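Sequence and structure are no longer studied apart. To make this concrete, we show below a single chain and its fold as tokens.
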Amino acid sequence: MPHIDYYFSTISPYTYLAGTRMEEVAAKHGATIGYKPLDIIALFGRTGGIKPAERHESRKEMRLQEMRRQSAKLGLAMNLQPAHWPTNPAPSSYAFIAAAKAGVGDLGGLVHAITRRCWAEEQDIAQDDVIRAALEEAGFDGALADSGMLAGAEEYARNLDDAVSAGAFGAPFYIVDGSEKFWGQDRIEDLDLYLAGKL
């Protein structure tokens, strides 16, 4: 049974654009998923990337055009410059980690519920009420927003170290069985083909 380590950021527009397509691919091929929320800005710093605000103007322009095209292609509403971005991704990530440990809801749905609130619904995903609503939408107890902060912080930091060690440098980033790497929501089709033995 293949295993996918899924490195993602709750403030990443491309994690939002991934929707739940990776989960559909994993289910199709009987793959398990290890969800690893991380600090994307810290990951950029440790792997040679540049945070969006510090990129050259041509890169900023291309990023916005690409986000517009991809959201239209996928039929996902998207505000290219949301009111609450960037925001602190740690609270939503800690809540996600607590939800993963609880194991009673839809984790893929939770990633999408959080990121959608940032990128399509003009909500601040650092706020407890926003996080609770996302948890409840995905079938989890909203009270998880207030639990496991210390354990969540430790795992969040560990996920960053794991990502660097595994060779991940962006989000979303998918690694199959510790070796085959796929970077970006636009590589989910390739992930599907790889799991089918066609790549």
In short: The two ends are 17 Å apart (CA to CA). Residues 3-195 form a domain with the Glutaredoxin fold (CATH 3.40.30.10). The chain is about 50% helix and 10% strand.
